[in-house]
Amino acid sequence: xxxxxxxxxxxxxxxxxxxxxxxxxxxxxxxxxxxxxxxxxxxxxxxxxxxxxxxxxxxxxxxxxxxxxxxxxxxxxxxxxxxxxxxxxxxxxxxxxxxxxxxxxxxxxxxxxxxxxxxxxxxxxxxxxxxxxxxxxxxxxxxxxxxxxxxxxxxxxxxxxxxxxxxxxxxxxxxxxxxxxxxxxxxxxxxxxxxxxxxxxxxxxxxxxxxxxxxxxxxxxxxxxxxxxxxxxxxxxxxxxxxxxxxxxxxxxxxxxxxxxxxxxxxxxxxxxxxxxxxxxxxxxxxxxxxxxxxxxxxxxxxxxxxxxxxxxxxxxxxxxxxxxxxxxxxxxxxxxxxxxxxxxxxxxxxxxxxxxxxxxxxxxxxxxxxxxxxxxxxxxxxxxxxxxxxxxxxxxxxxxx
Length: 402
Hints:
Layout: E1 2-7, H1 18-32, E2 36-43, H2 47-56, E3 62-67, H3 72-79, H4 83-93, H5 97-103, E4 109-113, E5 129-135, H6 139-142, H7 149-163, E6 168-171, H8 174-183, E7 188-190, E8 212-217, H9 222-240, E9 247-250, E10 264-268, H10 273-278, E11 280-285, H11 295-302, E12 307-309, E13 324-326, H12 333-345, H13 347-364, H14 367-382
């Protein structure tokens, strides 16, 4: 099977965001099924980052990078950060000769990340199946503090109308899939993200004297920056720091933080996240805005970490109360602090939450279940009349690509 894949946020290796995690999981799946994959990126084409990406994905048949620095007028539309400006930006990208040439090549199925890529559909060859990896209901990303309720409702109607242009739309959040299903006639599939779990045979924490008490991992997405700063000012600095707790923050979000506190380590981009999880007692998810599903929450649970989160950080995660402590941070900061202190003080309590977390991920978000859902989806999409698989039945197990 030939696959054309579009991703709008630059090189997705190294993985630095939830969206990049989803794209990386797609690549693992495609490779495990022996598919021929071509990738189109909207990116700042830096040679070092490109080499790292190509080294990790040497099996790709073709890589086309639309260097956004060559198109400042288009990038300017995205920087205005409204739903309609994003859609206008992608309409302009679809007019670029290199984009048109890439998308017009023969393919069996095209995966497009985010609904804004709808203008690309007219460029596909006849017969190509069109898959939207919706990730989030994007209208919700622009509504808080930016757009009026009436404009939000208009954008939401437009977004669901655009779903109808695809052969199928995939959503990561079961609640959002239900909402879209009630508003759109497009074929929709809930395909929960597959998450790797820590080995059940290894300790969930390293040596006690080398632990961080708190961990947050994120990209410089505005809700991450807002949440970290709020948590520092209202919970960590006044209620946790005096108890000697240490907080590690990892990921590119560090580049957008101005925290200067010896109790807070801004680690930046970390190569070995597994080791960092082991060195951390609990993970906090202080998010107040968001859509889709919180990949950072899923990954923390998969690594066997107790998670203390706002309701937004738990969006789309059902039946998870045994392994996640969900609190309303803004309404009860002292209760949040007390909960964190109790967890940090008890290794037994942390281990109990951690084991339940891995069981939850294995039950609801296993990588095997994800691969099976993708197999079923493509079988129906490519050959609805016979149900035959569009790839050989003898395939490698779905596993991480080294």
